[in-house]
Amino acid sequence: MSAPVLSVRNLVTQFDTRAGTITAVDGVSLEVGPGEVLGIVGESGSGKTITGFSILGLIDKPGRIAGGEVLLNGQDLRKLSDRAMARLRGDRIAMIFQDPMMTLNPVLRIDTQMIETIRAHRDVSRSRARDMAAEALALVGIPSPVERLRTYPHEMSGGMRQRVVIAIALMLEPDLIIADEPTTALDVTIQSQILSEMQKLMAERNTALIWITHDLTVVAGLAHRVAVMYAGRIVETGSVDDLLDHPMHPYTRGLISSIPSSVPRGERLVPIKGMTPSLMNLPEGCAFAPRCPQASEICRKARPDRQDLASGRGLRCFHPLEEA
Amino acid sequence: MLAYLIRRLGQAFLVMAVMATIVFFGLFAVGNPIDLLINPEADLAEQEETIRRLGLDKPVHVQFGFFLAGLAQGDLGTSFVHNRPALELILSRLPATLELAFLGILIAVVLGIPLGMIAGLKPEAPYSKVIMAGSVVGFSTPNFWQGLMLIMLFAVFLGWLPAGGRGDTVDVLGIPVSFLTWDGLSHLILPALNVAIYKMSLVIRLTRAGTAEVALQDYVKYARARGLSPFRVVGVHVLKNILIPVVTVLGLETGNVIAFAVVTETVFSWPGIGKLLIDSIGLLDRPVVVAYLMLTVFLFVMINLVVDIGYSLLDPRVRVKGGRS
Ligand SMILES: Nc1ncnc2c1ncn2[C@@H]1O[C@H](COP(=O)(O)OP(=O)(O)OP(=O)(O)O)[C@@H](O)[C@H]1O
Ligand code: SF4
Ligand SMILES: [Mg+2]
């Protein structure tokens, strides 16, 4: 693999709340190469969005990045000044937010929001920026883009708005796009349509893509590699096929057997028992221990460290499942 | 849009009619203006002459009938005291009040919005706490007392500004204004400040609350995620969203300032309609009081209308439509 576009090492992001400090991202390490799609999968609250915001340096009080490195093309973003970081945002790294209905400013027209983005990063005239915006809309399959530019967000459907946001992300040809569940709010047909279009564009442009989702099936069809997150940590990572065919972490296996299509006809779906843990009071040992069928004495006492196995496989578990 | 306008004006006229009736009879019940108006030295014939001329010899329902008949011809009656048409009298005083109100509101907006945004963006900072403490003081100081303090400080102690009156005026399109002459402006500053301080406190609190809320919205974070400058994020993305409630309240407050400039105008002897109202009530000058209140209601409705239109310009989601209620 060529040099990674993004390389995150031991990232820790914490929130200081009245009830104590919450570690929402706990020692996350990941890499994405050019043209590669990394899926981050995890339940609600596992820290996926906060990981994305941390990469962009967009953690607001009471939160703070407490440790780790974020390297973009080898440059440590945590060492950059606010201004230098702002220059990168939207230009070299673009993020597509989780909720398309809330992402665009309701009182500004689409053209205003697209043109301001271009002009924040490129020294071009207003009319040139407008042309670029229209091209970007056309690229993501928005019909009559020139007219569309003059509308307000509320005049568009959710699917259209999400396309606009995707267009804004693509517009300046960034090195990395972080897409935070960009399709979950949309209906299934539009979802798969947008997915395949994105996949094609990413491959064509050699853009690195981090696709955040809680849906393993989306990842299966889109990503090259997967990182499974649980309670702020990446518990297992590996190539898509490897990980889906031979899950080694009990949580990953639990996720897979709760997908309807993964279970042969006639067999029962097995949802993961128990509740997502609250980050406020995580168990002392492995965060998954209270729900884990494999859990033993040690799991309740110590936190498993990350083991790096062959072929880019990473794991945090004392009792990995035997390869089937 | 037209239907909407007509409905709004219809409502205005209804309120004006009810208001006028209540005040007419209310003032009749309060006392007899004759006791105040008539020169005690005048002889009986003269007194009766005056009473007849003012229509005060007739029973109240007949007087009210005359009043309505006058209204139908656009005549709001003639001031008992000044012997001039009441409406003309009020309109001649209106520019002074409008000038005071608008300058007051302008100061409140120009200072209040930035201060409120600062306090909303950095609620924990010491300067934000100072701003908010200041707004509490501005909010709770009685207007007349605040006016007197301003006079004490700037007119009596420092001697920088005059204590009252309107100063020199210039006619612009036939309307006398103060703010274009140095002397006029110096007379205007203190009363305008007195009007502004309370409004500014209000604007600061509204802006602070709005900013704190809007700053948490996804679209603000998204604006930052696109690499926009902090200036643009705050000055465009946040500001445009908080202006909606601020404009609404300010619109209503403008109505309030105009209608109830009484205190400030009295403290600073500012010759506006508020001072006229107080003088007229004191003299039981019924036509002026009734006309004043009708005009006030009308102004209120018009200002609300302007606010609604401004609202729709600011928020594309509520563009005024013909069928809107
Ligand atoms: N402002 C905050 N203050 C305190 N804790 C926070 C804050 N924002 C996030 N967290 C914590 O960080 C954790 C991770 O949140 P995050 O939004 O990253 O989850 P997620 O994996 O994206 O979930 P979802 O699938 O629901 O979007 C949450 O469980 C929450 O406890
Ligand atoms: S470390 Fe123990 S509790 Fe945690 S996932 Fe592995 S087996 Fe289960
Ligand atoms: Mg999320």
Explained architecture:
The complex is a heterodimer of chains A (324) and B (325). Chain A is of the alpha/beta class and 324 residues long. Chain A has helices at 48-56, 82-88, 100-103, 110-121, 126-139, 145-148, 158-171, 188-205, 216-222, 240-245, 250-257, 297-301, and strands at residues 6-17, 20-32, 37-42, 63-72, 75-76, 93-96, 176-180, 208-213, 225-230, 233-239, 307-308, 314-315. Chain A has one domain: Rossmann fold. In chain A, β1 (6-17) and β2 form a beta hairpin. Chain A is globular and about 65 Å long. Chain B has two domains: 16-72, no CATH class; 90-318, MetI-like (MetI-like fold). In chain B, α7 (143-157) packs across α8 and α9 runs antiparallel to α10. The N and C termini of chain B lie close together (11 Å). Chain B is 74% helix and 2% strand. The interface between A and B is medium-sized, with 29 and 23 residues.
Domain module count of chain A? 1
Calculate the mean pLDDT score of chain B and round it.
82
**CATH architectural designation of the largest domain in chain B:** Orthogonal Bundle
Instruction: Give the strand order of the largest sheet of chain A, numbering strands 1, 2, ... along the chain.
Output: 6-7-8-3-9-10-12-11
Main pleated sheet of chain B: 2 strands, antiparallel
> What separation lies between the terminal Cα atoms of chain B?
11 Å
Radius of gyration based on Cα positions of chain A: 20 Å
- Percent helix range of chain B: over 70%
Q: Can you say what the CATH homologous superfamily of the largest domain in chain B is?
A: MetI-like
CATH superfamily of chain A: P-loop containing nucleotide triphosphate hydrolases
Overall mean pLDDT score of chain A? 90
Bound molecules: adenosine-5'-triphosphate, iron/sulfur cluster, magnesium ion
Q: Could you say which overall geometry of chain A the principal axes of the C-alpha atoms support?
A: globular
- Helix tally of chain B? 13
Say what the CATH topology of chain A is. Rossmann fold
Task: Give me the secondary-structure category of chain A.
Answer: alpha/beta
